[in-house]
Each structure stands twice: as C-alpha cells, then as structure tokens.
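Revision sheet: structure tokens.
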Amino acid sequence: MTKQSILVGSLYVTAMVALAGLAAWPIYATPWYIVVVAASALVGAGIAVLSLLVKWNGWLITLLLLAACLALAVTLAVPEHWASGTVIPDGLRESALGFVTGFKDLATSPLPVGTYRNLLVPAIAVFVVGTFVAVRFAFVSGRRAGFTVVAVGVMLAFGLLFGRTSVSAPLAIGPFTINAPVETAIGIASVLGSMWWLAWRARDERRRAIARAAAATGMRGAKQNTAAHARRTALAATMVIVAVGAGAVATPWMTQSHTRDVIRSTVGPEVDIAQAETPLAGYRTNFTNANVSSVLFSYTTTGEVPSRIRLATLGAYDGESYRVDIDTTNLYQRVPSTLEGVSGTTSTVRFEIDALQGIWLPTFGQLESVQFQGADGPSLADGFYYNAAAGTGIVTGGVGEGDSYVITAAEPATMSLVDARSPGASAQVTPPESLITWLDAQAVPSTGAGLAEVIDTLRARGYLSHALQLPEGETAEWMALIPDYAGFQSSAAGHSLARIDALFTQLLEHESQVQGDEGASMVSAIGDDEQFAVATALIAQQLGFPARVVIGVRTASDTLPACDGECLASDLSVWTEVQDASGVWIAIDVTPQHTDAVEVESRTQRDPENITDVRPDEVTEVAPPDPEQHESDDSPPQQNDTVDTAVVGSVLRWVGVGGLGLILLLAPFLTVLIAKTARRRERATAEDGAGRIAGGWEEYVDTAVDAGMVPPTTHTRHELAEEYATPAGVLLAAQADHAQFSNTVISENESNEFWEIVMAERRAITQKMGWWRRVRAALSLKSFVRQLTKPARPTRSRSAERGKRSSSRAQSTS
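Predicted:
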C-alpha cells in the first residue's frame, strides 16, 4: 500500500463513520453519543492498523476487539453508574449484558434513549467492529478491499434499522419540497462516496500494475487519449448523477404515503398481551364474596394524589370483547430513565402490589420516570413496557405480592365533555339496531354537549348490578359496600354486541310501556360498568368521537367507588374516554345509578331469558357463549376451547421472525459448506479422466490448506505431499503427475480409485484435529482465497507443447 492509498482510504472510512453516526443520531440524541462514536471509531481503527503491522492471528484479534468493546462499554456506556459510584459491580454487569440484550432492548425502547442503562453498548459494538473491518480491508490490496463498503453499509444500517418509525420533516426550498431530507442526504452521500472510492481504488490498482510492468520490461504504455478519457468520465458521471438524482426524487415521493417499517415496528410484548385475558372479561369476578375485600395494591404519595389510577386501556372492539389495541401506532416500548414530561400536575407515587396478578401495572397520568424496588426490581424493570398513547404499562413476567415501584408522572390538563368537539371519526363496528333506535329517540347533536346529555340519560335510566344471582345462603358483600343501594336486580355479564343489544332492548321496551305516563320511572337497563362503558363507547363513536374503555380505580368520589390508599377489588371501576378534535382524551364516568329501583311491574312482565346473539349483517359473525352463562358470578370460569387467532398469528409471526433470523445467522456458514460441496462434485465429475484426477489433487490440497497446512507456492506435487506427510500423499502426487505429463488415457475406474484415495486422505487429515478445529476447517475460506490468488496457467495441450519442443530441437540441430 502506498501512502496515497492509505490517506484516501482513511478519508473514506472517516467520512462513512461520520455518516453512520449521523444516521444513528435520532436513536440517542445526546452529545455523549458523539464522544462514544468518536472513541469507538478510533479504537477500532487503531486495532486494525496494529493487527496489520504485527500480523496477529484471528483469535488474538477477536479477543482484543472483545476486550476493547468491554473496556469502552464500562468507561463510556454507563455514565449513570459512574455518577452514582456503582461501576463495580453494577456497571460492569450491565456493560457485559449490553452485548447480549442491548440490541433487543434498543429495539423496544422509545426514542431518544439518551444514556439510559446500557443502550450505548450496541453503538460501541457497531462502531468498534465496523471501523475495524473497514480500515482493515481499506488498507489491503486486491479485491478484498471491496469488503470495506460492506462494513460501512452495516454501520449505516444500524441507524436505519434501529431508528425512528418516521422520517425527518420535509424541507421546503422555494417551490420544491424534499421529503425525508436527512435520510436522502445520507443515502446519496454514502452511495456517491462508496462509488468514488471503489473507482479510485480500481484506477490506482491499474496505475500501479502498469508501473510495475513498465519497471520489469522497460516498455512504456501507450499514451492515453485525453479527449476520449474525458468523454468517458463525463458520460459515467452523468449516468451516476441522473441515477442518484432520480432515486432521490422518486423514492421519497413513492414512499411518502407508506409507514416506515423498522425493527422497533414489529418488536415488543405483543405475544404476552395477546395471550393475556382482557381485564374487562373478568371484571365481575372482583365482586364475588371471595374477592370483594381483597387488597389489590396500595399507594402512598407526598404530593397531590392522582385523580385516577389505570390498569389497562382497551382501544380495540370486535363485537365480542374489548381488547388492548396493538398496532404500529400503539406500541408498548421500554422506558428510558426519564421520558419527556408534559404540562400538568406532577406527582410521585409509590405503589406496592398485594393480590393483584397479571401483566397490568397500576399507573397514572403521563409517565416521566419509573423505578422498581426490591430484590425483583431488575427483572421487573427488564419486563416493563409502556404505551404513552394509552398511558398504561405492563410487566411481561407479571407482578406479584410484594413488588413495589415509584412512578413520577404528570396529569395533563383536561377539558369538560360539554366543550368537546367531534372529530367525525368512524365507528369500529356497527352497533345493534336497538342502540341506534334509542339514540335517535334522544335527538341529541353530534357534539360534546349532546354526548354528555345522552350519557346522563343512560346512567339515570340504568341500574347497577354486579351479579346474575345472589350467593345461595349468603349475602352479597358488594351490595353492603354501596350506600343507599335499592335492592338486588339480576343482570348478565359480558359486553358483546348481543349483551349491549339486550341492554337497549330493555330500555326501549320499558319506555314504550310507560309512554304517556309522566310519573313513571324510566329505570330499566340493568348492568354494571362493564356494559355501560362499552355502550357509552359505541354511542360516542356514533356521534363521531373516538372512544376507548379504561379499567382502574378512582381516588376520590362522593357516590362512586374510590380508593383512598388501599385499593380493594370492590374499588375497581370501568370508565370510557373519548377524544376531542384537538387530540385530548376526556374521561367519562359511566356507572349507572343505584338508588332508584327498577319498577316491579316492568320486571314481572319479562322473565329472565337467554339472550341470543342478535348481530347486524355488517359485523363479522362470531358465536359467543350464552350471555346468561358468560362470565357469571356464580359459575366457575369455563375453559375456552376456541383458538385465539391473535395469539396464533402472533406466535406464527414470532416463529417466522425467529426462523428467518436463524437462517440469516447460519446463511454464511451454509453458503461455505454448499460451495465446497459443489466444488468437490464439479471436480469429481469432470469430462475426462485426467481432469478428474487433477481435480482430486486440488481437493486434497484444499483440504490440507483449510486444515492450516502450508499452501502451495513453488512446491512440486511430490514436495507438497512430503510436506503434508499423509499416508498416501506421495502416491497421489505420483499419479497426478503421471496423468498430466503422460499420453496415457485415464479410465473411469482409475479416476474413481484416485478419488477414493483422496477421500481417505481427507478423513486422515481431519481426524488428527479436535472437533472445534474440524469445524473451523470446514468453514475456512483459505482454499477459495488460494484459488483466487493462484496464477493462471496457459491452456496449451500436451501435444502442442511437445510439438513446440520438437520444433525447437530440430532447429537447434540444423
């Protein structure tokens, strides 16, 4: 390598590292990241230069790279542990774990991650190893220098694959708008830079080869036509500029209406959420005598108490059940040490779990920070995911008694439902005809005031009931906890469209019976928060409001259940949230009244009946269980034999992703094995016997070279066989020389016998090695490199060569 080649290669690698660092900037977005990238690149480049000067073997280089990465990780990737003085052992442990779990954690954490935990470790690994490989190949001659571009591409891909799900904001330049300007600029710069470097390397190699030939022969090459060279250069430059310009303009334009899919778009705890039962389905079990007085969790705060504590936000309804909405816009992600705060009242609350089970974690407001405590704190933190859009968190391994954590969050300012404006959103499902009929009869406008009015009417005409029937021989404890409760009324559980249809059918039938009677009570719809929250969501969607259902507890209320620090199962409640046109979510209490009883006359006219699934044609038909028996208070949970397609789909997706990842991981090794097998088959099936024997000798030599023996340089076959010292190596050399230099026609049996000896020699070579060396030999590329660097031989036949020698002898004698 010349000084000029080293200088140009260094400039190219430096520029590409800077571009790769810029591409990954949105992931971290902290000045400390610049220090990490610079230090990692310098260390990687230093090791590459040192390895070229000292000629270390591959194992020593690998160990040095690992040690350098770990040293940089401890020094730079865990600054929080340096500040707290816990570098040893906590910082060291987290740094080591970062190389194993860091990439997964990075893909599931909201951006930017800053210096959170050990998430700088992946950047250190990428830039140390990437710069090492790039410099190592940039400073060598020959075709291997092209691998520098591959190393640069890997570093650039790090920022693209682990980056944001959205691109940079459009850039307006006069009448033109450039979409994704940052990503476009990085792509153009990297492509042009790599093309220029490869072209320069090819030209430099050619120039030096011509210089070597001129020095050896004393002959000068013909002077190049300057005008023709300029034309070719201009034409090539024009083609590159047109191609890059067309790509830069067309790609953002063609993809501007599509979402940007990166690794974080598909990675998360979706499988755990899909497998978990929707908390609304088991809502009534909290009001059985066995559970009603259980302490689920408790909280303490030194500041202002949050108004509501939520367990789960359910945004997807399929007509059968309300579930957690899992899509690209509602991702559950890992939480850095702090999140960007929102304006509002900030509180710090310590929660302690008691009887609460499952993956749902009590939270409130918009999370700013969370700290898990106790011996299980690290595992809880590792399994914690947060959905900022829904304001809810989960722990993938589930919570248990004694788990505790501290949350700092802000409750943003909300607005009155009366002042809300409808965004005009469409409904998720077509509601029952009975709901539409009842809503039309209310004649309210599609405004926040209209929605508030109709919900007040629905709650006033409803009646609270948490059970299908009373416990035999016992008193329902939940009734005693409700002041001024008018008396038990039976109601079925469930919140399918069939159950909601039954609720509004009760309303319509009773209203038709008392029509004209001004003094009659309008109370007739019997149920609890489970049914009324879903009914409210369906009504809100009919009026154009996006709606979702939330299960949690209130911390203060005059008439509704509330938790004052020790949250019981009976304190659980369900409410509905609707979204204003400005994007603000507004909570709506939906619990029906409980002081005015249902008229006895109205109730005696209708015996309890099994509610069937009356579902409009527009809704996908699903056959739910009988609502009278579905999730009832007095019957044990029945085993659901149906297959949850969401779970199956999630499992299949993860199996596919894992399988694809395994294939990609093993692909290089399988490619080497397949290539060697194909090469051996081609040699063994050559057209003539002499070719098969020559191929057999080459197979014997390649096996020895891959096993670590000396490659052939100026050796004769006999000398090489003696060097390898295998049992039949000398015999193979003699037969190969005989086949090449004699006029004997080699039969198929002779070539087959030769190959049998070759295969026996191959086994003899590999049997001397341990299993790990055998694996390394099988995957070694030394034999391919030997074939690439072997000088080409003239393809003259033996008869032509003999004729030439005979002619020379004749001329000399004459």
